[in-house]
Design a protein that fits this description.
9% of the residues lie in helices and 37% in strands. It is mostly beta strands and 280 residues long. The longest helix is centred in the N-terminal third of the chain and has 20 residues.
Length: 280
């Protein structure tokens, strides 16, 4: 009987020791193919965001430009007497980010603010690889960034969305450095106040794709500052560029993380390995 007790004790001791030294045994393994989307907009408030309005310091939401109502992030101009060149942006506080897919549902509504330039009618944008709002000057119109431009139609004429604009930056398309400020996509036109789902797939400065309704309508690489410095990461922001705009969903799929198949949180869809993210 004594020998039997000793054998059981030894087995328990061995099992406990293995569990303590075998980290994979300790951590449940995640489904490597299950994509982990994260909601950047909580539908309730703007606590995770920082506003920057031209002419005002970062953090001051002048004229109540950005607000949340009925679960929607809104850019509005009802408290402006006229536009006065107060271009605005709202930055997500997380970041900087480099490899990810961003998915946003947006629409244009209402009328353009008095004094807004003609080119900004039903015009807005998503800024990425952007400088932070704290780096912007008080009187700076736009952050240095790559812009995924959003445009709405007038009900008759064709007007593509998911275009590319490059404030303070350049990109490479088909091997050619492009220094023109805005380049049109191949998307169809979206008239009226309909909701549109856009996606941005970005991998550092090696690849960027603008996607509308699952179709790639713009692709480029070589994102860089005007002086040629590679721009492979940065912050994410939405514009307030004179026309009322609604955002009802902002989701991100981070493409940077643990790519070690031995780890419990290995993900098969990642494109950039971050060894610090691995759990064993």
């Amino acid at each position: 009987m004594r020998l039997h007790h000793l054998a059981v004790l030894a087995a328990l001791t061995f099992t406990t020791a293995c569990s303590a030294t075998d980290p994979i045994a300790q951590t449940p393994r995640e489904n490597p193919d299950e994509k982990v989307w994260v909601d950047l907009f909580n539908g309730r408030d703007l606590n995770d965001w920082t506003v920057k309005i031209n002419g005002y310091p970062a953090g001051e939401n002048a004229f109540n430009t950005f607000r949340v109502q009925d679960g929607i992030m809104q850019a509005r101009y009802d408290e402006y007497s006229e536009f006065g060149n107060h271009f605005g942006h709202i930055f997500y506080n997380g970041g900087p980010y480099s490899h990810y897919i961003l998915q946003v549902e947006y629409r244009f509504v209402g009328e353009q603010v008095k004094g807004g330039p003609a080119w900004a009618w039903r015009n807005n944008g998503i800024m990425y690889h952007a400088q932070s709002p704290l780096e912007m000057g008080v009187n700076q119109d736009f952050p240095s960034c790559i812009e995924y431009q959003l445009l709405g139609g007038d009900g008759e004429k064709p007007r593509t969305t998911a275009n590319l604009c490059t404030p303070g930056t350049h990109v490479v398309i088909d091997g050619e450095l492009r220094t023109d400020h805005c380049i049109v996509s191949t998307s169809k036109t979206y008239h009226g106040d309909q909701w549109v789902t856009m996606e941005l797939h970005v991998e550092g400065n090696k690849l960027a794709q603008h996607i509308i309704d699952g179709e790639v309508v713009m692709e480029y690489s070589g994102m860089q500052l005007d002086d040629g410095t590679p721009r492979d990461s940065g912050y994410i922001a939405f514009q307030a560029e004179t026309h009322p705009t609604d955002i009802r969903s902002v989701r991100m799929l981070n493409l940077e993380g643990c790519m070690d198949e031995r780890a419990s949180n290995y993900k098969s869809y990642l494109v950039k390995h971050d060894p610090k993210a691995c759990r064993y």
